[in-house]
Amino acid sequence: MGWPATDVSVSPLDHWRWKFLSNPLGFHLVCVAEIDGAVISHSASIPVRMKVGDRTVVASQGVDLCTDPAFRGAGLIGRTMVCRNAMKDQHDVRLDFGFPNQASYRLSLGKQGFHDLGITMLQHRYIIDEEQFFKKVRFGPIKRIGYSTYIMLKRPLGPRVDVGGGITLGREREMGEEFDNLYAKASEAFDMMIVRDSGFLTWRYGDHRGGDFIVRTARDNGRLVGYMVHREEVKDGSRFLNIVDALADPAAPDAIPLLLLDCISMAKGMEIETVLCCLPEAHPYGKHLAEAGFLSQVRMTGNQEMKVIALERGGTTDLINRLTGRGLRAHIMLGDTDWV
Ligand SMILES: CC(C)(COP(=O)(O)OP(=O)(O)OC[C@H]1O[C@@H](n2cnc3c(N)ncnc32)[C@H](O)[C@@H]1OP(=O)(O)O)[C@@H](O)C(=O)NCCC(=O)NCCS
Questions:
Q1: In a domain, 167, yes or no
Q2: Does residue 260 form part of some domain?
Q3: Which of 24, 44, 100, 204 could form a disulfide bond with 199, CB atoms 3.0-4.6 angstroms apart?
Q4: 75 C-alpha vs ligand 1 centroid, how far in Å?
Q5: Is any ligand 1 atom within 6 A of the Cβ of residue 40?
Q6: C-alpha atoms less than 13 angstroms from C-alpha of 18 in its C-beta half-sphere
Q7: CATH at 285
Q8: Residue 56 falls in which region: left (phi positive, over 0), alpha (psi -120 to 50) or beta
């Protein structure tokens, strides 16, 4: 499959172990078919806790369906998916969700009963180096993984920057209990979001087997008021910085604007051409991105608009009614997918 799709500096097997066996919920949803001890088909989902309205349930994102080319067309993927779904029942998974490509969008809605949540995802783009961007300079044969790891190791932690008024910005290595408190406050502004508690954040962004992420925080007199997570990407000779996650205390309205300025200045220091940030339309952080000079357009997956789909499990409908209802305030970013 050319797996994983994202760049990692560890072996695919170590990345697989991180992705499925190190989940902070303490269980996995992976089912494989074997022949003579060799894996020939693989279905998986990633369990997370998700806030839907005023409830928090276990939800799962379907990922990494694959059958060995020599064994395709024999119904193996269907059987590993049935087995994986039975594992969801054991763990009381109440909701399935996903960000499908065109083919799996059709299958999921047509055959499996998923609903399109009707969320328009926007791609916000800030062009740092216009000359580089428009000339599309090629970097030549830079080894993608090797180069980004080299840069990561070279970049120092750096001191926190005092921006006045008691606010400081800086890089963070560990995400502890204060991130739980921030989630508790910040999540009130949203009706749908993956629970970004310290366990989730440490697993998602703090383990190098999952990728190399840069976590920047804003603190008010030492108290955590917001964070932004970044991931560098080299694609077709261009260097991007993806803002893959962000969250701020609603009582600190300057946190996101300051973290954006911090991001742009960091990107300049890293010789990045373009900063990208994916958020639902009408998201409260969207106006800060526009004020900072980001331009937005609809985010595509291949040649269709990025879709968010969900399926309620267990015969009830309250979750899906909430998710498909009017005015849903969803907090969805690239780090919620397995694309980064
Ligand atoms: C897609 C793939 C996993 C199918 O595996 P397979 O074991 O050969 O599957 P089969 O052809 O025996 O069965 C296909 C069944 O799975 C379903 N299916 C195929 N792809 C699916 C998907 N992405 N999501 C849900 N169901 C899917 C089909 O609808 C079909 O169901 P049916 O038998 O009820 O009609 C396999 O072709 C593959 O590994 N492709 C490369 C990787 C890939 O594209 N993965 C999907 C990424 S979303």
A1: yes
A2: yes
A3: 24
A4: 8
A5: no
A6: 21
A7: 3.40.630.30
A8: beta
